[in-house]
Specification:
single chain; about 150 residues; two-stranded parallel sheet; 5 helices; 8 strands; about 20% strand
């Protein structure tokens, strides 16, 4: 019997909070849970925001998961023009924006075209469906939800 996406999200993300004390963003949580279920170690994620940060979704993974993630993307998007990329994440600004925090062996999964937020979500959802099928996870009958700002782009 397959598990549901809601059960998998609960299993992999319950009690996980970021450095600000916030839960994993609601709309990126299914992808994070499925990546974790596929043995990919996630480090950080965001569904994107219009008022701060980046408007598109992204997930950072530990370097030891790079090859596995790359293989999954190649399988998922075989024969298609790629819409997601993985790149070595060198660092990010500190909260007070005074210096760069360096990360060793960390990679970011994000859209190739960061200006196409709706397209980014379509690609992320395609990856969610692919991973769910591979892991025998039941998806809701309705389409997967996207943040309101993604459908406005």
């Amino acid at each position: 019997m397959s598990t549901t996406l809601a059960e998998l999200v609960q299993q992999h993300t319950r009690g996980v909070i970021d450095r600000l004390g916030c839960d994993i963003d609601e709309h990126i949580a299914p992808l994070v849970a499925l990546l974790m279920g596929a043995g990919i170690e996630t480090v950080a994620s965001c569904e994107g925001h219009l008022t701060h940060g980046l408007p598109h979704p992204w997930v950072d993974v530990h370097g030891n998961s790079y090859n596995r993630l790359n293989d999954l993307l190649l399988d998922c998007f075989a024969g298609q023009v790629p819409r997601l990329k993985i790149w070595k994440f060198e660092g990010e600004w500190s909260e007070d924006r005074t210096h760069i925090i360096r990360h060793d062996r960390q990679f970011r999964l994000e859209p190739i075209d960061p200006t196409d937020v709706a397209g980014a979500w379509a690609a992320m959802q395609e990856l969610v469906r692919f991973l769910a099928k591979r892991q025998d996870v039941g998806l809701p009958l309705s389409s997967l939800p996207v943040p309101p700002h993604a459908s406005a782009s």
